[in-house]
Amino acid sequence: MKVLLAKSAGFCFGVKRAVDMAFDTDATKTTYTLGHIIHNEAVINKLHNKGIHSVEELDNIPMDQVIIRAHGVPEDVYKEANDKAIHVVDATCPYVTKIHKLVNRHERDGYKIILIGDAKHPEIIGINGWTKEGCIILKNIDELDLSKLSKEERYFVVSQTTYKKAVVDEIVNTLEQAGYDIKFTNTICSATSERQDEAREIAGQVDAMVVIGSRLSSNTQKLYEICQSICPNTHCIDDASMLEKEWFDGVEEVGVTAGASTPSDVINEVLTKLEQI
Ligand code: F3S
Question: What residue owns the CA closest to ligand 1's atom 3?
């Protein structure tokens, strides 16, 4: 069985930077990450061994420093850390920081902000928290209610960095065609679109596809959906232990890709096991 590995599989620039920053942090001080640094248990456990655990909020836990993960956080969190004299190790992906600045500035310039993404995703919660009034958050075109928008307003539109381009394009095109005054900045990270394009291309060439990453990771789930729609024999796994031999009966070529939070050693273990199969 031939194995075709996507070049773009695994850590993106922002996640690699955040993980490196967490491991480089001086853990002789009481340090927590705000939420898990990435959706990967092996990495989280390694950080635990270094003495760095995670908390969901800054409330009530004495600490010297807090690490902010690549997804970023609302502006209030920085103020709260400052009030509590907690040092911030800011591992927010620079591409996400750019969105924080964009929405903040455009709101001050009089725009209403439309944010395309999943309202429960930490990145969206973070971006929303850089506006005073809050954003109009749309998960998909079904949530776009034109009767709630006004042609007297100006709207600034951005999206979650890991969102599907087709969903964003559909909303932006609908708003434009309906004659609303919108300014759109494409904030989909190229790491995501490149990984998705490559996954699409490979899924079209193989008999089976393996997507490595956590079920909790939204970009992994999107990769899975894309591959599955092209190659029905697609499987999403956390690591090599989840591979099942039967999936590859009669398979001549298998494609492999991985979400942005999948470490390279996990990918290598999967490749080794596939070669054995
Ligand atoms: Fe940043 Fe793009 Fe990764 S926004 S965290 S480099 S997917």
Answer: 14
